[in-house]
User: What shape does this take?
Amino acid sequence: MASSSGSKAEFIVGGKYKLVRKIGSGSFGDIYLAINITNGEEVAVKLESQKARHPQLLYESKLYKILQGGVGIPHIRWYGQEKDYNVLVMDLLGPSLEDLFNFCSRRFTMKTVLMLADQLFLIDFGLAKKYRDNRTRQHIPYREDKNLTGTARYASINAHLGIEQSRRDDMESLGYVLMYFNRTSLPWQGLKAATKKQKYEKISEKKMSTPVEVLCKGFPAEFAMYLNYCRGLRFEEAPDYMYLRQLFRILFRTLNHQYDYTFDWTMLKQKAAQQAASSSGQGQQAQTPTGKQTDKTKSNMKAFFTMDSTAGEKSSVTQQEMKKSVQELICGDLKPTSPRLAGPIKLQLVRLDG
Assistant: This one.
């Protein structure tokens, strides 16, 4: 674990990235806001002690290298060693979807949920695993008695049963994430138990005893169709990604929504800007001239899921600081100066077609 931010004031990594302050932490180490001293650009820096019992930063950097150029994958600037640390320098990202969910009073409209269903942006690949061999294209073998990997809230039923995870499990987990945003909570949240093992068992029992139709009651049938499809997949079977995506895209059009990248938090930001302008006497000057947004604006409004083994750990950032960070990003100039790289929403694994 990296030491406090105060001792890192003059710490420069990669020859040009100067650490500014700590913005998060996890089982691997700490995350810092840093500045590229050659051009002033802000980046995120992950530090991991070279003495870590279970080092994962090198592995994660290799996965990012494989995924570079993919939609929703942050750019990696540098990986190497500095002093006693493994260091990963990457794009500085905005608040997590959990932060934005709280900012929106834990209510997302169907339009926002469906746009998220169409495209998510992922970071933190400490738990990622290839589902097939690069050379032979052989799928990993079916196994049982596996420990639960990831966050129990979103874990697939097979993951709870100790079955090796594959592509189907990622898709099932995504379905639970979408229903979490639809419902504001899932039926298996808040269960009490004496031990973590007993809690996982209770979550598993509740998840298996809750019919998909009950979980998705009151919401468009496409969500139940999605989950039933995912649960019906065989271990090695490739999900029909286009079919699943079209389920939600057709629903989106049926509901007459416009794919304009106007999420719920975008509306709150615009409303806050107008109110601020009105109170200062500027009135119409603060209003958005058109409903259109530039690619740069769209990019800065991306929300990110994290995929890490640090689920449930307490962040070093206080709730008050987090709220301020999200408000600065959403109600400010859309520049992500206060990133959240480790929110509580986690998926299980990433399956790489490498």
Notes: The chain has twelve helices and eight strands. The radius of gyration is 21 Å. Residues 1-6, 283-303, 305-319, 325-354 have pLDDT under 50 and may be disordered. Strands lie at 12-13, 17-25, 30-36, 42-49, 76-82, 85-91, 121-123, 304-306.
